[in-house]
Amino acid sequence: MKTEKLDIVLRANQLMDRLVGWRRDFHRFPELSFQEKRTSEKVGEILESFHTYEIEKNVGGYGIVATVTHGEGPVVGIRADMDALPITETTGVPWASHNPGVMHACGHDAHMAILLGVAQLLAEDAKAGRFQGTIKLIFQPAEESCDAAGETGAIKMLESGRLHTDAVLSLHMCPWRKSGEIQWNDGPSMANNDEFHLKIQGSGGHAGYPQHVKDPIWMATYVLQALYSLNGRKVNPLDVGTISVGQVHAGEANNVIPSIVDIKGTIRSYKDDVRDGLCKEIHQVANVVTALGGEYSLRIHRGEPSLINDPRINRIIKEAASGLNMYEEPFGMGSEDFSHFTRKIPGAMFFLGCGLEKERSLHQSDFDIDERSLPIGVRVLLESAYSLLERGGVH
């Protein structure tokens, strides 16, 4: 069945006021990972108002899956994340966060509003019988943080068994592109995200008598030099991989050599073999401590895998974005737990331009968006989903 794509651009633009209202409401009341109770309830209320969807709540936490089916056909998923960040907002806008120390600084408020816009148009088309197949709208909790088991919301929703789809789509707000622009990339597009904690154990004592101690800070200077040298000497220059140290903690007084130094950092890469190689090299570097007379413990937590975008789905996204300015480029060394979806289901994420005149970087206290980007996101996601249905899935 050929999908009747009736004026999706016009209809998406007519949703502008509603999209802005939804986005600003979510922005006023942000909630951290695994705490998205009010957010989930609001999303559920709006979806129920369309009188179209089979709605499953509390999927993988506060997640929601809203399904609509019209006839036989493939199943396409569209995902938006819901959680906010532990950041104190400094935008000064009237719709700024009402929850102290919590802020939507990564655009998840916009992601939800856009997917609700898709939901409204999709509901209208379902009632009119304009498509054939099934679409699942996936509102995912806990993208930004993992729980004690090391699992984010994507893992928990996938493990629920309620996300059987033939393809999956998503978008992310992009403050370095303007409204009317999108960024796409085939293959690895965001990074593997691993964290390490190296504890160096020496024997402390009086700073005036260093000959009587095993100084872990002295040992740490060799370790830090070796860690930073891995970036330039252990990674193929044609590959992408980096190690960054974010925390070094030692001592409580300036005349006492401490017994312990804690070093914590992150390992980012695109390819799995680079990921494995960097983790192995950190273990090798840690052996320096033993050679210098100390002891150590090293923990490496493997986080999100790299985001792999399916070229076949990217071709469909680019067709849906016809008339927009498109840029082919990886999305950087950030990570995204949508990567868990694309490791199991053919899928792709694109970055939606939303930049203001003064760029507001992701995860910063002054982050904000050009809201004119919202109906563009609705259009590209919905047209892409319809194309996948019409073509019988991914081929």
From TrEMBL:
Cofactor: Mn(2+)
Assigned keywords, A-Z: Hydrolase, Manganese, Metal-binding
Co-factor remark: The Mn(2+) ion enhances activity.
UniProt xrefs under SUPFAM superfamilies: Bacterial exopeptidase dimerisation domain (SSF55031), Zn-dependent exopeptidases (SSF53187)
Record: residues binding Mn(2+): C106, H108, E144, H172, H363
Protein's UniProt keywords contain Manganese: yes
Superkingdom per UniProt: Bacteria
Domain Peptidase M20 dimerisation residue range list: 195-287
InterPro entries (UniProt xref): Amidohydrolase, Bact_exopeptidase_dim_dom, Peptidase_M20, Peptidase_M20_dimer
MF terms (GO), sorted A to Z: hydrolase activity; metal ion binding
Keyword rRNA-binding belongs to the record: no
Protein name: Amidohydrolase
Origin species: Halobacillus aidingensis
